[in-house]
Design goal:
Helices cover about 25% and strands about 40% of the residues of chain A. With about 170 residues, chain A is of the alpha+beta class. Chain A folds into 2 domains: about 1-80, 2-Layer Sandwich (Alpha-Beta Plaits), CATH 3.30.70.260; about 80-150, Alpha-Beta Plaits. A 6-stranded mixed beta sheet of chain B has the order 8-7-9-6-5-10, with helices on both faces. Chain B has a 5-stranded parallel beta sheet with strand order 3-2-1-4-11, sandwiched between helices. The radius of gyration of chain B is 19 Å and the shape is globular. The chains are: A alpha+beta (about 170), B alpha/beta (about 300). At the A-B interface, helix 3 and strand 6 of A face helix 6 and helix 7 of B.
Amino acid sequence: MKHTLSCLVKNQRGVLARVSEAFASKDINIESLAVGETEDTAVSRATIVVTGDDHTVLEAERQCKALDVVIQLEDLASEDFYARELLLIKVRVEPDTIPRVMQAAELSQARVIGMSEKTVTLELAAEHTAIDALLKLVRPLGIVALSRSGQIAVSARDEETPESELDAPAAPVV
Amino acid sequence: MNSMPQPLRSFDELLARARNAGVRRIAVAAAAESAVIAAIAHAMKENLVQPILIGDIDLIRTLAEEQQVDLTGMELVHVAHPIAAAAAAVKLVHDGGAELVMKGLVKTKDFLRTLLKHEFGLRRGRPLSQVAVFEAPERDRLVLLTDSGINIHPRFSRKIAIVKNALQLAYALGMDEPRVAVIAAVETVELPTMPASLDAEMLRRLAIAGKLGRCIVDGPLGMDNALDPQAAETKGLTGPVAGHADIIVVPEIETGNAVYKTIRYIAKRELASIVIGAKSPAVVTSRSDSANTKLYSIALGVLLNRLVTQ
């Protein structure tokens, strides 16, 4: 089963390697991993997509949570969440394929952000299924370059800010 | 010897050419509208059409009497409801009882929907678009503008159809290899901010590859550089279209509508328009259009119908 994990970690060097190791130690391959700062610059959010049996993934999650650099870890598979991925793709374009390339962009609501004599570059921020659908449309036309950001996600419910030493209020000045 | 007719330069020439095309039977949907009755009577007098007025007969007669329009020679068919009248008119063309259809006092969306009905419509698998025509006295031919009335925010594939529809009319107006300007606000492709400039560039490429038929396409071009040779020269635009466009393709309906009305109300020029894409051209004018606009629009339909049926 696919699991989308949302993990708040300290924004420090070496954190990703330690989180990755927790999954590697359980022989779980990380399908996508996207990390960026949150509203608190001392905290990063890592969205990790893994596939594995529930028990093994749960063990890896426990191991992760035990790390001192991990502030919070949620398995979003068990609740509603918003997920997006960014795709940048350069597609070959020839007179015969112009209508198909343009139609693919229109159908998937991708933006054309660049063009040359031989290619157009599309940008799409969407759920991964929509990105897969676009790829299916343009693959026969010739993909010159492709880059996917990996999925980012947030829970749909109102989140409570985790308590951590990073969030602790400054000591009152007496 | 070149057998191609010369491009038409004025609406007078349009009327003359349409008269020579032979009288066409025109079915007028929901014809109980003063301006429509007057325009049809005028077109009949000009030997352009043989009218079949479909609508509330009593009302049609009253309105004709008020304007002292003689209905002699016109066929009247009583269908009171506007949408039913539209259906009857379209069906008449479908069944071969008329060659042209014209919108009267029925909502445009209802009329167009009827035009495309599966059971008896005139659907031909090509999207509909409106092409307007205006005189440009300093030019040696009429100028076409599309689409100012039907396609709101056309995607690229729809723009291909819009160009092809306009080309069909341009050929009917005697243009052998129409010069098509695809309009944007700039002359270079600006991405991602100005997608219309990308559409223009892609249409240009398709035309070069011969995918649009007999024409020359250039774009993106500003309106000034499309129509004014001096403006084009000033900007260093040297292609065959810049400054000499025969067909103006606007990015979306707001631009088209604004240009149409600017020509009419600021430049005080007459226009004509026609809806293309169905098996038969459709005359769709608005109530605010002048009597001449209605007459010239009917003439466009006659000419285009001749080309389609040739």
